[in-house]
Amino acid sequence: MATTSDIKKGLCIKYSHDIFKVIEFLHVKPGKGPAFVRTKLKSVTSGKVIDNTFSAGHKIEEVRVETHKFQFLYAEGEDYHFMNTADYNQITLQKSVLDAADLMKEGEIVTVLINTEDESPLSVEMPSHVILEITHTEPGVKGNTATNATKPATVETGARINVPLFINEGDKIKIDTEKGAYTERIKE
Prior knowledge:
The chain has 188 residues and is mainly β. It has strands at residues 2-3, 12-15, 18-28, 36-43, 49-55, 59-62, 65-76, 79-84, 90-94, 109-115, 121-125, 129-137, 150-155, 160-164, 172-176, 181-186. The strands form 3 sheets. The protein has a 6-stranded antiparallel β-sheet, with no helix packed on it. Strands 9-8-7-10-11 form a 5-stranded antiparallel β-sheet, with no helix packed on it. It is flat and about 55 Å long.
């Protein structure tokens, strides 16, 4: 059994007859009253995100997980197929379990959290950044780069990202997978 002081991002816990992964947390110690931990939890079975507040010292049931490297093979409707890079076993996961499914291209190496009790995959963690190519965007207006203006662009996976005006079709960009936002243009 763990307590609220053990809560960290990525921790999997049993709560309310389901397994949840901690997405965000904040320890709060108000001037008046007891301390508490405000959390944002994502269900690994349904993908539903809930907000929950635990009082300080509250006991939580931790789920023991192992991490394995998997390669994304292909998507088929809502099913996403992955292959273990160590033993070449394949698994299929639903889109709802994935954090940033629209930023995943074929061949991407991801980390899959596996429940050690029943060997079931719980969630998929993307790398912190991915590099994707712009397939469609409107041309930027020359000279309009002084402001922090952005325009919508479609990347090779079909995801839509807001990018600065100087980005053109064919450019490769680095995307923060956690926020789903443009970070920089990659020069070749």
